[in-house]
Design a protein that fits this description.
Blueprint lengths: L2 E6 L2 E9 L2 E6 L1 H5 L17 E3 L4 H4 L5 H11 L6 H8 L7 E5 L1
Length: about 100
């Protein structure tokens, strides 16, 4: 089981986990209590309850590169394009936008 920190504007917003049944995302309690808390996605509104999914949440899957850039990631890091969590951890440490994914 792999786990990643979801960083939003330099704050730990939550944790994304690969589980036996798919994926789970939970907001960090301290982040939820902060005055600046904002949802990482419209599809993942702020909640103290964890989200569960059989597949990688579309928001996170959308952060993974596509096309030639995905080909480069596969070749350089020897990743399988079907390993969505592995691609997310390898390629999304410094994304364009507010959200970044780092190994926990």
């Amino acid at each position: 089981m792999r786990r990643a920190k979801v960083i939003m504007h330099d704050s730990v917003a939550g944790y994304l986990s690969e589980t036996e049944g798919g994926y789970a995302f939970a907001y960090d309690d301290a982040y939820l209590r902060s005055d600046t808390a904002a949802a990482v996605s419209l599809t993942l509104p702020l909640s103290s309850k964890p989200y569960q999914s059989n597949v990688l949440f579309p928001f996170f899957d959308g952060l993974i590169p596509e096309g030639w850039l995905l080909d480069v990631a596969e070749q350089n890091w020897k990743l399988d394009r079907r390993d969505r969590m592995g691609l997310l951890l390898a390629c999304c440490k410094d994304c364009i936008g507010a959200v970044s994914i780092v190994d926990s």
